[in-house]
Amino acid sequence: MKIKVLIVDDSALIRSVMKEIIGSQPDMEVVGVAPDPLVARELIKQTNPDVLTLDVEMPKMDGLDFLEKLMRLRPMPVVMVSSLTERGSEITMRALELGAVDFVTKPKISIQTGMREYTELIADKIRAAAKARISARSVPTAERAAGALPAIRNPLTSSEKLIIIGASTGGTEAIREFLMQMPSDCPGILIAQHMPEGFTSSFARRLDSLCKISVREAAGDERILPGHAYIAPGHSHLLLGRSGANYVTRIEQTDPVNRHRPSVDVLFRSAALSAGKNAVGVILTGMGKDGAAGMLDMKNAGSYNFAQDEASCVVFGMPREAIALGATHEVGPLHALPGMVLNYLATHGSRALRV
Questions:
Q1: Which of 18, 230, 270, 354 is placed for a possible disulfide with 218 were both Cys, Cβ 3.0 to 4.6 Å?
Q2: pTM for the full model?
């Protein structure tokens, strides 16, 4: 059975391009196109689509307003189509908070080279969205900001241990929920989230405004400090390195791995090499298998690893692959993972540091 897709965009050109791209996939069909949310609302009733692609900025009704109403009244998988601008990235981050599964940037119509890769990207995201678990939105962000877990009360743990996180589809919200529970003295955190260039800086700023810890886009060659999280920039791989006795961030623009840059495998493998048993790995919701092999390398190097469980994942792809490889030690629901990680650090941290 084909995936039924409804396209909503105020640009006739973008609607045409998206229709051609989606219609070219043998497992998809475009069941309607709409220039604004008001038309889309009627088409949703008529066509009952499996996935909606939604422009973030449209006339008659703002894309965010429409998304908020949609997720409250008729929750369904939504892939946002965003302009590659600062405003577009900030709106997209808000859309993901409201319940959108994922997003793509608008195609560069004038550039035909790379169009095949763009087509594959959109198709992959729609397939992932069609399999996604869509649920009612949880407690509003503002009400959860004070929900950080207690301090670790073990200075050795927070200064020497590291938390290494990888995620993809659904990961922006999973990472937000995880980081918002981190106390101000938690170990340094490195994060690889599949996200294009221009969006990771907005993502980091948003998290920094919500969390007790400091969150920033990694710039490279920074000393990794307790109470700080470093997010891989959308244009580069993030790696863990060492400079003398200190852990530092490294940024590399080498080829994509598993079709991704940043890649979770690249980050995890660098953690295996540079930190070994001082690293704790966490793999969250995401499509595909990026991170599974790297997490196994971490386990073999002595790290202790956690995976998000199927019931709480938007897409149970990456965690499933890591579990299948035997790369994880514990599996738990998203809301419990921060406590599980901190409990492990509190009870094993000092012993693990005796090298």
A1: 230
A2: 0.90
